[in-house]
Amino acid sequence: MERPGAAAGGDVCMCQTVFPAHANHRGELSAGQLLKWMDATACLAAEKHAGVSCVTASMDDIQFEEAARIGQIITIKAKVNRAFKTSMEVGIKVTVQDVLTNIEKIVSVAYATYVAKPVGAGKFELEPVKLLSREDHLEHTLAIERRRIRLGYEQVFQNLMQESNKEGEYCNFSEEEDAVSTDLTHVQSIELVQPPHANHHGNTFGGQIMAWMETVASISASRLCRSYPVLKSVNMFKFWGPSVVGDRLVFNAIVNNTFQNSVEVGVRVEAYNCEEWIKDQARHINSAFLIFNTVNDKGELLTFPRIKPTTKDDMRRYHGAVARRRIRLARKCMLSAKEDKPSDSWEKSNQAYVSYSNIAALAHLAAKPGWEITSTLDDIKIWTHEEGDVLSFKVEMQVKIPSYLAFSLLSDFTFRQRWDKHFLTCKVLQAVNEDEKIYHVTSPPMTGHKPRDFVILVSQRQPCKPSEPYIVAVKSVTLTSMPPSPEYCRSEILCAGFQVYSVSPNSCMVCYFNQVTSGVMPYLAANLTGSSKSIEDTALECIKFLELECSKY
């Protein structure tokens, strides 16, 4: 089936004034209304790119940073970051503007997945997104990493749950006098899907379902806090199946756990048509976990009472909330990390996000504008980039070797000693998977100083299409099993790595990047902090090593 003509990229912008009908009792834009607008805008962007009808498959974790009030203007921008075969990632940015002060603030940045649903059963495949700017290229690269996180989320969650069961993290809730039974927070609501709730194919809008879920979850949370809860974040909305006009949707919400100033509410959505309704045969179409807090008249956060699970299922949800919170905090830490933050702790709850931040940091560094060339040799170019107290280096090397082979040799850091004199030893501490390894590296002592050592994560990625580079990203991580030793001065790698581009079947361009701040002296950058001659010598040794190894094949 041929795709109808449509503008590639799928950029869509929607502006809305917040009226009283959109607001809650505090005069702030209802989170449910905002979710409907976000889904509608993102769906329009997806359909603009696909040229056919699209449905919501999932929406990643959403954080709400600011509240919009009556009279303010909400702007929602959505664009397709990457198209896969029949699905696509849509980036969504929500801002609020005060018309009196003209001050604009970010409300939320989110990512959603939409699936193309053409009419008929013909074969269909989405066209690639046209990349017109540096930002387009960057988001296109990172979309693959976010997809890896989505696909691996369930495994991470199950690992944390197994860990919780092994440790026996069961509290004696009967001793807590103020603990509230979870049964008291259970809320059920039923909605009949009518034409205004659905698209032109009769499928219920995902944003409408999200809004209904927010309403029932808010009621559940209010029964615990005796106040008006405020939605702060949502753990991934995932749609397991469709619902259509005429379906009865049953929403069941219950508090899973509380964390002093926040509460997690789980919502399960089941759909019934007329026949299923009579036979009580439900279709599970959606589940999500919503996190609320509540404030007093002075805007101060209030403390939630502890809850008391009363059944085995209550206990499962209780520990599930703990696991999701660990993942959520890890995500927030990784994705909001500043450039000069210290090395990340490598734990089960954050491995996917540390890997993401590793690849993302290198992609951001490579995409920065303003690189200045400082030296040119026959097959080597050296570039620098200064931004505040951050100095970055880029070494571009032309190598007579296939790109896939260069990638294989450069991604195995046990080979690094053979061409980089600053590598004394290098051993694998942990082979996490085929794309991630953790190494312990030592370097020779410099005059008057102890030898340095590093614990680094090396993340490697192969390109999805010929025009994309092979990637080897490097950053420091913290392993509890490898604490600093008095024998060495533990150093940090902020951001480093390689991008390998194919030039011809037998040649490639290797770009090495390294970022250094005034407070960080990473060992891998030691050869780049000296003269251009030192950099060129190391680059020449690298080329020599790669081409020599190629001759053996």
TrEMBL record:
It catalyses: butanoyl-CoA + H2O = butanoate + CoA + H(+); hexanoyl-CoA + H2O = hexanoate + CoA + H(+); acetyl-CoA + H2O = acetate + CoA + H(+). Keywords: Cytoplasm, Fatty acid metabolism, Hydrolase, Lipid metabolism, Repeat, Serine esterase. Residues 368-553 form the START domain. It is found in: Cytoplasm, Cytosol. Its main location: cytoplasm. SMART domains: START. The keyword Cytoplasm applies. One of its GO terms (biological process) is fatty acid metabolic process. Its EC number is 3.1.2.1. It comes from the Eukaryota. Pfam families: 4HBT, START. The keyword Mitochondrion does not apply. GO terms for molecular function: acetyl-CoA hydrolase activity; carboxylic ester hydrolase activity; lipid binding. Catalyzes the hydrolysis of acyl-CoAs into free fatty acids and coenzyme A (CoASH), regulating their respective intracellular levels. Preferentially hydrolyzes acetyl-CoA. Homodimer or homotetramer. This is Acetyl-coenzyme A thioesterase. The gene is Acot12.
